[in-house]
Amino acid sequence: MTKHRVSQINRRGMLGLLLGGAAQVGLVQSALAEGLVASPLPKPRPADLYRKSIPTAEALIEASKLSGQVSFAVADTATGEVYETHAPLLRLPPASVAKTVTSLYALEHLGAEYRFITRVLRSGPVVNGVVQGDLILVGGGDPTLDTDGLATLAGKLVAQGITGVSGRLLIDDTALPRIAQIDTEQTEYAGYNPTVSGLNLNYNRVHFEWKRQGEGYSLKMDARAERFAPDVQVARVKVAARNLPVFDHVAGQGRDEWTVAQSALGNGGARWLPVRLPGLYAAEVFQAVARAQGLRLPQGQRKSGAGEEVARIESAPLSVIVRDMLKYSTNLTAEVLGLTASRARGVAAGSLSASAAAMSDWARQRFGMRHIALVDHSGLGGASEVTAVDMVHMLGAAGVEATLAPLMKPVLLRDGQGNVVKNHPVSVHAKTGTLDFVSGLAGYVDAPGGQRMAFATFAADLPKRRAAKAAGVAERPQGARTFNTRAKKLQQALIERWAGVYG
């Protein structure tokens, strides 16, 4: 026994005498005798024992009570070693996880500094403030163009002293093919399923607002942004005395005609509706924001034209657009990026499916993704297929982590009550994907200690999804929310398992 140990016990014994006499001395003697034959310090718990206490992936999947199928793969980004898989070659819809492929496709073929340009041309000279000829608004496909952007463009014309046009206002939206809807299986009035065109304004959506007014309703449709919110006539809505469908659409002569079920309106509300005539929508809004600044323009016509450029605005760099697309999961942005990248490659893609097929071919050649088959660039189409192991191969490929990980949004981990856990030791940057009865997540996990892993996990109940589509169920089929909630809880449980076992 060391001198320090003896003196420590002597001090304890003296304290015992002072506090309680002989009884305390007995306790000290007992402790001393015990200290001679056993260490008072507990042995450290072996790391292997801790890892063995973590539930297996199969146990987590069973506990999730998810119907349908589950697939995942996880690998070390530094070595490429695949740590763990479950049905890794099962082909399932990626939903918006497909946007990770689109991001790399666009960045590689367009470049991180690429900018979309929206221009105004004039076909004749300006005399006394009036263009002697036509004014042509030429779209470059910019998916982020909004009403304020068109107002800035009009302001540049006014700054040059232009106050009118003797000819026509032409709208050139031919930079990209016009695609009526991203996915025909989605509800027609879903704002996330707009028309795609070479001239896209406000994500090709119009803002619909209603308020109860006596026995009826006041209805308003506008093209709102931060500074400007002009009313529009190219899209109109009327109240119909019915229960279903909630919205119905008829393409009128030069305008979108909507009806809404009165039983769904309540006391008031607002939502975005898709625009099916994006060229005419942009023309009307451009006319309105120009008029507000003193420039009078005639009604717009969809027709390409030639002339001298007099004004332009540019989008943010592509890297910023990609970051925002991954954060907000904007479907229009993904489709525009994919179509524009295919065009840059010289691919004659007149449809989303043709462009997506070209992107899938590129992914096979570029990353060895043998089982990828996408029908669009956003993941909105449920017919797209990918495997978890292919996604992990892509995420772990040379240069991809450095490109993609900084653009991905953080995925916050939650406790059993659904509250965000602050300062969680596990960090996740990934892309989510959600459709009815489909849930995916793919990206990067940083375990405690700094080890990074690439992962992909997909869950889908395709029979239930097909049944819901066949039944014509509207925006939220029964059981879909429960499925997706369980899938997200399973995703977090798997991530915490991987961080604990392999971190």
Automatic annotation (TrEMBL):
This protein's UniProt keywords: Carboxypeptidase, Hydrolase, Protease
A single MF term (Gene Ontology): serine-type carboxypeptidase activity
Source superkingdom: Bacteria
GO biological process: peptidoglycan metabolic process; proteolysis
PROSITE patterns associated with the record: TAT
UniProt record similarity statement: Belongs to the peptidase S13 family.
Protein name: D-alanyl-D-alanine carboxypeptidase / D-alanyl-D-alanine-endopeptidase (Penicillin-binding protein 4)
UniProt organism field: Celeribacter halophilus
